[in-house]
Amino acid sequence: MHKQLYPIASLIVLLSIIALPAQVMAKSALTITTEGNTRAYLTDIVYNTTEDGLEVRGVIKRRFHNGRIRGHVDVAFVDASGKTLKSGSSKPKRINHSNKHQHRAAFKVLFNELPAGATTLQVVHHIGTEGH
């Protein structure tokens, strides 16, 4: 009977170690705000700690089903007073294989760490140089 419980106990310890980074991120939960445009909107935005640092990723979906998803995505960590603590940008990478009928694209921005005092994660999709 002891041999049957040992693998289960090992599994519980392993799962608690794997779940630890998620608990750390839950303590520093950020409010996520998004801003799309008339052609596309942002969805499925998540942030988590990876081997490379803090990764923010998500998906841009087209409002209409023709043309390509253009532009770039700006990601910023903001404190309670509205001051930008750290920011970065990314060009979207297409998910499907057709340039003519591109319905969605993914983006990913890497940061070294979560800035101290950050309360909000702002994600904005710009087309062209708008917003710069």
Give the tags.
132 residues; Immunoglobulin-like; four-stranded mixed beta sheet; four-stranded antiparallel beta sheet; 1 helix
Characterise the protein shown here:
With 132 residues, the protein is of the alpha+beta class. The protein has one domain (30-126): Immunoglobulin-like (Sandwich). Helix content is 20%, strand content 43%. The protein contains 1 helix and 8 strands, in the order αββββββββ. It has one helix at residues 2-27; strands at 31-35, 40-50, 53-62, 72-78, 84-90, 93-94, 104-111, 120-126. The strands form 2 sheets. The protein has a 4-stranded mixed beta sheet with strand order 1-8-4-5, with no helix packed on it. Strand 4 and strand 5 form a beta hairpin. The longest helix has 26 residues, at 2-27. The radius of gyration is 19 Å and the shape is globular.
Tally of strands: 8
Helix percentage range: 10-25%
Number of domains: 1
- Give the class from helix and strand content and strand pairing: alpha+beta
Q: How far is the first residue's CA from the last residue's CA?
A: 66 Å
Average pLDDT value? 75
The secondary-structure element order is HEEEEEEEE
Low-confidence stretches: 1-27
Rg (C-alpha, Å): 19 Å
CATH domain fold name: Immunoglobulin-like
Helical segment count = 1
Query: Strand order within the widest sheet?
Result: 1-8-4-5
Inertia-based shape: globular
Strand proportion, as a percent range, falls in: 35-45%
In short:
Helix content is 20%, strand content 43%.
What is the fold's blueprint, element by element?
Blueprint (H helix, E strand, L loop, with lengths): L1 H26 L3 E5 L4 E11 L2 E10 L9 E7 L5 E7 L2 E2 L9 E8 L8 E7 L6
